[in-house]
Design brief:
single chain, 260 residues, Arc Repressor Mutant, subunit A, two-stranded antiparallel ribbon
Length: 260
C-alpha cells in the first residue's frame, strides 16, 4: 500500500514534546524538514553529510543534529521517527477500513430484494448469474487482509507498483489474488513474487517481461513458485542458440491471450 503524500500534524503535541521544547528555531526548522524527507522517502539516510545537505548545509550541523537526532531511531540501516510511523499505521488502517466498506457496499448493490411473499418474508437474490459478482466479492471480503499483504509485498519489489487511484485494475487484482488463495498460501504467493523480482532484475536470467500484478497471477505465478525451481529454469544458457529458442518459446507464451 502506497504512503499518502500528507500526514497529520498536531501542533500541541509537537510543541509540548520534551525533545522539541529544548530546540531553537534553527533546530526546529531542520527537524520539520527531515520529518518531511522521512515521510516522502520512507526513512532517512544515516549519512551525516547527506542529512546536512538536506537541511541547507548549516555550519553548526553537529550542534543541530545533537538535538534533532534524538527524534529518530535506526531500523534496517535507515532512520525513522516513531510518531510518523504511528501516523502511517493509522492511515493504513483507515484505508483498509474504507476499502472493506466499499467491498461490502458493492456486495449490497449486487443483490436485490424481492417483494414480500405471502409469508411476509423477503428473499435476497444476486443480479444476473448466481456464480458472478456475489461469490467473488464474498471471497475477497474473507481474504482482505491476505490480499493487502500480497499487494504490499508486490509494491515493495518495485516492479510495476499497484497505485491506489487505479480502481479498475485494483478490483481485477483483488479478484485474481482471491482466486489464487484458494490453491496457494500467502507465503507461497509472496515467495513467487520475490523469485520473479530477482529473476527479472538479474542479468544471469533470461526472463525479462515486466507484468502488472494481476498479469503475473494469471501467467507467471505457477512458474515462479519455489517448488518449481524458477532459478534453475530461467538461468541463461551459455549456448546462444538454445537461449534464443527458449526466448522465442517464452515470448509466444507471454503473448498468449489472458482470460479475465
Amino acid at each position: 500500500m502506497n504512503k499518502s503524500p500528507a500526514f497529520q500534524f498536531y501542533p500541541k503535541d509537537f510543541l509540548m514534546d520534551d525533545k522539541v521544547i529544548v530546540m531553537n528555531l534553527e533546530e526546529i526548522g531542520a527537524f520539520v524538514k527531515l520529518l518531511c524527507f522521512c515521510w516522502n522517502n520512507n526513512g532517512l539516510t544515516k549519512n551525516q553529510n547527506e542529512l546536512k545537505n538536506m537541511c541547507g548545509n548549516p555550519e553548526n550541523w553537529e550542534v543541530i543534529w545533537g538535538k534533532v537526532g534524538k527524534c529518530f531511531y535506526e531500523k534496517n540501516n535507515k532512520l525513522y521517527n516513531k510518531r510518523l510511523e504511528k501516523e502511517f499505521k493509522k492511515q493504513r488502517a483507515w484505508k483498509r477500513k474504507s476499502q472493506l466498506g466499499g467491498i461490502q457496499s458493492g456486495i449490497s448493490r449486487g443483490r436485490k430484494v424481492q417483494p414480500k411473499g405471502k409469508g411476509g418474508s423477503t428473499k435476497d437474490e444476486p443480479k444476473g448469474n448466481s456464480s458472478s459478482s456475489s461469490p467473488s466479492s464474498s471471497t475477497i471480503l474473507n481474504n482482505i487482509e491476505d490480499i493487502h499483504s500480497i499487494i504490499e509485498h508486490w509494491n515493495s519489489q518495485e516492479i510495476k507498483t499497484l497505485e491506489e487511484r487505479e480502481t479498475n485494475i485494483r478490483k481485477k487484482t483483488f479478484s485474481k489474488i482471491a482466486k489464487q488463495l484458494k490453491d496457494y498460501s500467502v507465503n507461497e504467493i509472496s515467495e513467487a513474487i520475490s523469485n520473479y523480482s530477482i529473476i527479472l532484475k538479474e542479468d544471469k536470467y533470461f526472463f525479462s517481461y515486466s507484468w502488472q500484478l494481476w498479469e503475473f497471477l494469471d501467467r507467471g505465478l505457477v512458474n515462479f513458485l519455489t517448488n518449481n525451481e524458477p532459478f534453475k529454469n530461467y538461468l541463461s544458457d551459455k549456448d546462444s542458440t538454445k537461449e534464443d529458442q527458449r526466448k522465442k518459446k517464452l515470448d509466444d507464451w507471454v503473448k498468449k491471450p489472458v482470460k479475465d
